[in-house]
Design a protein that fits this description.
The structure holds two protein chains of two kinds. Chain A contains 19 helices and twelve strands. By secondary structure, chain A is an alpha+beta fold. In chain B, strands 2-1-3-4-5 form a five-stranded parallel sheet, with helices on both faces. Classes of the chains: A alpha+beta, B alpha/beta. Chains A and B meet through helix 14 and helix 15 of A and helix 1 of B.
Chain lengths: ~575, ~150
């Protein structure tokens, strides 16, 4: 009777464990717990088979009792092998378990006489599990491993106890210990952080925890990324993020605004493929990108870029290596320094011009005295010689001195006009006589024909000297353009809508396209002689009168310079 | 009245200009003296009577306009022509205010300068004649009055 009671109590213990793991499964929804729940539930009836006191019912269901313990041993082996193989996904092992379970049920139902096979299978598997568990413990030395091992040993000895009839108490205690130890493993799994068989039971939960944490951090990451993008767009300067190969990952709105390229045209492309940067700038950018990717700090540098419209912009580039979408990237902040550059350039230019002006005044004055002396000397010689019979050579030579002095004098005058800051004196003047006077002053070579066409003009308020300077310079300019091949210099005046126009049309060499923009720049010249201040003076003087000097030219055919002067000056306000 | 030779004083610190200018004027038959500095010019102008002076605007010891003012004070009738390497409106205005009769910029064409000199000298002699005539007229009327009295 005691034996029967012990068997029944063990059955109850088994059922309690099944219920316990059922509760755990309910809490965790872990297939591992489900597996043990099923094996506990199955094996709990096993002990009833030991009650052999002629209970016919039990005899009849011998098959059922024999195979009921089989899934338990499989659960052990699945647990230990999963642990050894560090399987993270329990789906496959669970399927195997279900298969075994189904097989066991099959064996229970089908009245095959293979029950003798069960103890053999059971014990051989037990030893395998014991061996692997021992190996596990020896390699990892985890507390839970040794408990698991002990549990398996107890379970095995319980099983062997029944097979070899070692007595009911032995069997009962073995199984009870096996259950208790297994429960311990379950419990340690709650605290398990790493390794050991316990982590096998804890894995799912940990996974879930990690998964949740991952979700949270992904959320955070997305928020950070969102904030990052928002931040980039808020920055007043253009910002570009490029990866280590130079591929553009992100641009802010300012880049679009500055360059005229759309986001679609930029993002996803390598900056080397885009026409935005000049070749030189690409080289600079590539070099500094490579440096930064190697972790070398690069100081802010300047770069030249082209807008979509073709306009050039100057950028100051400040870049920083960052992590973007898990990759190392380059956060590049540009600053548009075009205006700054222009101002700098202008400042430099005007400083240069001031210096030149000062030098010009000095040089101009210092040249005037020797020029005067040369002129005087030539005059004296000429006068002395005029009373004598002299050769043509000498007359020509003296003449050369005169014209050279004239030429030098013109340069000096130009230089001084250029350097002088003299205020214009506006008086009512007639332009036509002034144009005529100009031609009396300018020497025209024999191969140049001059045509003057004067239209009827109203008197205008202007500085006479400045006007004369404009006309002389333009006339000389035209004549010089025809020096080699000769031609016609046609000067015409006419009244247009609110303006007086004076045109100087020559049939000379013309101006090269690339030089057109530069010809009014001081000290720009294509001539072998002269300093290149003539046209710049014309422009300045015309502008003082609220007028302008424009040029049309075709290389090889000639140029037309048009001076436009308002009939009514309006306090510096241009009238059209 | 004895026809005395026209005398011109050249005040110029540049030796080459001084020499060549002297030659030019002498070729034309003018009696010419030169002065290197303002002081020298002053002394010479006191010692002799000159019909005309060519004054450089920059002299080693004083400004040409300063000399001009002094000469104008002492010899108001002398024709004074400023020759300057610093063409500026201020210079020109000041020169004319200080009693200059003309203002030319270097380098000036000798022929042009000679023409100017001739013109100014003629003006001067005409002015003299005018004064002479006036004096004669005055004496005549005075004599007539005396006769009448």
């Amino acid at each position: 009777l005691i034996e029967v009671l012990l068997q029944i109590s063990l059955t109850i213990v088994g059922i309690l464990f099944a219920v316990g793991s059922g509760y755990m499964y309910y809490k965790d929804r872990d297939k591992r717990k489900l597996m043990f729940l099923l094996s506990f539930a199955f094996s709990s009836v096993y002990f009833l088979a030991e009650i052999e006191s002629g209970l016919e019912l039990i005899q009849r269901f011998n098959n059922f009792f024999t195979w009921s313990v089989f899934p338990m041993m499989w659960a052990f082996s699945i647990a230990v092998f999963s642990s050894v193989l560090k399987l993270k996904n329990f789906d496959k092992p669970f399927k195997i378990f279900l298969f075994i379970l189904a097989a066991s049920i099959f064996m229970m139902i089908v009245p095959l006489q293979v029950n003798s096979l069960q103890p053999l299978l059971f014990s051989s598997m037990s030893f395998i599990v014991i061996a692997v568990s021992s190996y596990l413990y020896l390699t990892r030395r985890e507390f839970s491993d040794i408990i698991f091992l002990l549990s398996v040993v107890c379970f095995t000895s319980g099983g062997l106890g029944t097979t070899f009839n070692l007595g009911i108490p032995f069997t009962v205690f073995s199984f009870t210990f096996a259950y208790i130890l297994l429960a311990l493993v379950f419990m340690t799994s709650r605290e398990s952080e790493r390794g050991g068989i316990a982590s096998f039971f804890a894995l799912e939960r940990e996974f879930e925890k990690t998964h949740q944490e991952l979700e949270v951090s992904r959320d955070q990451l997305m928020r950070v990324e969102y904030n990052f993008k928002a931040l980039i767009n808020v920055i007043a300067d253009p910002v570009v993020i490029i990866d280590h190969k130079g591929c553009i990952l992100e641009v802010n709105d300012k880049v679009v605004e500055l360059t005229g390229f759309s986001k679609e045209e930029l993002v996803g492309k390598n900056f080397l493929q885009i026409d935005m940067l000049t070749m030189k700038s690409k080289a600079i950018a590539m070099k500094s990108l490579a440096k930064r990717m190697l972790g070398i700090d690069v100081k802010p540098y300047e770069m030249e870029a082209n807008k979509k419209s073709g306009e050039t912009v100057y950028l100051e580039v400040n870049a920083q290596k960052v992590e973007y979408e898990d990759k190392s990237a380059d956060l590049v902040v540009f600053r548009d320094i075009t205006e700054q550059k222009k101002i700098q350039k202008r400042l430099l230019q005007s400083e240069r011009l001031v210096a030149i002006g000062q030098a010009a005044t000095m040089v101009g004055h210092d040249l005037r005295n020797p020029l005067q002396a040369i002129e005087n000397a030539a005059y004296v010689i000429n006068t002395e010689l005029s009373n004598l019979q002299i050769s043509q050579k000498i007359t020509e030579t003296v003449q050369a001195i005169h014209s050279s002095v004239d030429y030098a004098d013109n340069i000096v005058k130009d230089l001084q006009s250029f350097a002088s800051k003299r205020e214009p004196i506006f008086r009512e003047i007639d332009i036509n006589p002034l144009v005529k006077e100009t031609f009396s002053q300018v020497k025209t070579p024999e191969n140049v024909e001059t045509v003057i066409e004067l239209g009827e003009l109203p008197k205008i308020e202007a500085d006479k000297d400045m006007m004369k300077r404009i006309f002389v310079n333009l006339a000389v300019n035209g004549i010089q353009a025809m020096k080699e091949k000769g031609g016609t210099l046609k000067v015409s005046t006419k009244k247009t809508n609110g303006f007086i126009e004076v045109k100087f049309k020559d049939t000379g060499i013309g101006i090269k396209k690339e030089n057109k923009a530069k010809i009014f720049t001081p000290f720009f010249t294509t001539k072998a002689q002269g300093m290149g201040v003539g046209l710049s003076i014309c422009k300045r003087f015309a502008e003082i009168h609220d007028g302008s000097v424009k040029v049309e030219s075709e290389e090889g055919k000639g140029s037309i310079f048009t001076v436009k002067l308002p009939i009514q000056r309006n306090g510096g306000v241009k009238r059209d | 009245v004895t026809e005395s030779k026209t005398r011109i004083l050249i005040v110029e610190d540049d030796e080459n200009i001084r020499k060549t200018m002297k030659n030019i004027l002498q070729q034309r038959g003018y009696e010419t003296d030169t002065a290197k500095t303002g002081q020298e010019a002053e002394q010479k102008a006191k010692a002799k009577i000159y019909n005309l002076a060519l004054l450089d605007i920059k002299l080693p010891d004083m400004e040409g306009t300063q000399l001009l003012a002094k000469l104008h004070e002492n010899t108001p009738k002398m024709v004074k022509i400023m020759v300057t390497g610093y063409p500026s409106l201020e210079n020109a205005m000041e020169a004319l205010n200080q009693g200059a009769n003309a203002y030319v910029t270097k380098p000036v064409k000798p022929a042009k300068l000679l023409a100017l000199i001739k013109e100014k000298l003629e003006e001067q002699s005409q002015a003299e004649k005018m004064t002479e005539n006036k004096v004669t007229d005055w004496i005549k009327t005075r004599a007539r009055k005396l006769d009448n009295d």
